[in-house]
Amino acid sequence: MNKLRIPFITDELSKGTTEKNDKPLKGIKILDVGYGGGIVSEPLARLGAIVTGIDPSQALIDIADTHKDLDPELDDNKPTYIATTVEEHITKYKSYYDALIASEVIDHIINPEFFVKSCIQAVKPGGKIFFTAPNRTWVSRFCLIFYLENVCNMVPKGTHHYENFVTPEELSLILEKYNCRVDAVQGFFYNFLNNIWFRVTTLQFMYGLRATKNI
Known about the structure:
The protein is α/β, with parallel strands linked by helices and 215 residues long. Helices cover 32% and strands 27% of the residues. Strands 3-2-1-4-5-8-6-7 form an eight-stranded mixed beta sheet. The two termini are 32 Å apart. The model has no long low-confidence stretch (mean pLDDT 92).
């Protein structure tokens, strides 16, 4: 999914920068919330971003710390990983980051409004916020829960809970409530037969949402 997710993030963050070649995100401070062991953090760091990845799981922190040391491209710009939650992190880093990413996280949160509000507080006024998540539709329920978890066992059973899925409309309303402007919503779909992710016009399965914190 990084083939879609990373351009969705970088195309926006690299606008107006003077950096060319392979470091279009040089100097941009990014918070990766619930970073999944560095899956998103490391590609962004390779592009020059100053990345902090946070997750409450110390086991994931340990995996990510070990993995980043194996990548020679990260020798001079490794992500920083911290075992914490965004709610705890903003007590020291409020309005600190240029951008925040929460990829496939909000659908595992019990109180999404409080989570989104905390994410917004971590970003500077004018900063960018990126979410990717499954929509709450029969398509996502069939694909993620029935097929991936119960038919082909690609994902452990119980990973997803349909009632926790957040629609893009619900997420947009929360962002707008807390002084953000929703700039774009993009649909993503996965071809299970060919193992390929691609962009689509429909939001029935997965979506990416980009917002700006108002000044």
